[in-house]
């Protein structure tokens, strides 16, 4: 998965955001897309093999101008991210709950 962030000029309202989102969804399959006229950006999460040129043409065809693009590997954020720190934190929480329940049962 990759995350592509486009800085886009020309979005003025929430309807503009919907136009950009719909245009991109029509040409490529995306996991998630979010546009913001206030931040002047569109964030797309998609598979690695998606052709970014197709996305850019879809956005430009709606009358918006892409100012810049940043593309990088997408790392899911959240509670159940099982990296080292998240796993250890979870184990500690389970141990605390276990001892708390044992204390209540006494």
Give the terminus-to-terminus CA distance: 49 Å
What's the CATH topology name of the largest domain? Alpha-Beta Plaits
Alpha plus pi helix count: 3
**Cα gyration radius (Å):** 21 Å
Apparent shape = elongated
Element-by-element helix/strand order:
EHEEHEH
CATH class value of the largest domain: Alpha Beta
**How many domains?**
2
Secondary structure: number of strands:
4
Walk me through what this model shows.
- The protein has a 4-stranded antiparallel sheet with strand order 2-3-1-4.
- It has 2 domains: 2-73, Alpha-Beta Plaits; 79-106.
- It is built from 3 helices and 4 strands; from the N terminus they run E-H-E-E-H-E-H.
- Strand 2 and strand 3 form a beta hairpin.
- The chain has 106 residues and is of the alpha+beta class.
- The chain has helices at 14-27, 52-61, 84-105; strands spanning 2-9, 30-36, 41-46, 65-73.
- The longest helix has 22 residues, at 84-105.
Descriptive tags:
elongated; 106 residues; alpha+beta; 2 domains; Alpha-Beta Plaits; 43% helix; 3 helices; four-stranded antiparallel sheet
Topology readout:
Layout: E1 2-9, H1 14-27, E2 30-36, E3 41-46, H2 52-61, E4 65-73, H3 84-105
Antiparallel strand pairs: 1-3, 1-4, 2-3
Give a summary of the structure in a few sentences:
With 106 residues, the chain is an alpha+beta fold. It has helices at 14-27, 52-61, 84-105; strands at residues 2-9, 30-36, 41-46, 65-73. The protein is elongated, with a radius of gyration of 21 Å.
């Amino acid at each position: 998965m990759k995350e592509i962030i486009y800085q886009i000029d020309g979005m003025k309202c929430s309807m503009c955001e919907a136009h950009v989102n719909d245009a991109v969804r029509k040409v490529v399959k995306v996991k998630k897309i979010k546009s913001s006229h206030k931040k002047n950006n569109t964030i797309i999460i998609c598979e690695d093999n998606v052709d970014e040129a197709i996305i850019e043409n879809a956005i430009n065809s709606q009358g918006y101008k892409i100012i810049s693009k940043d593309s990088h590997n997408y790392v899911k954020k959240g509670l159940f991210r099982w990296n080292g720190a998240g796993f250890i934190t979870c184990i500690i929480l389970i141990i605390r709950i276990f001892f708390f329940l044992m204390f209540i049962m006494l």
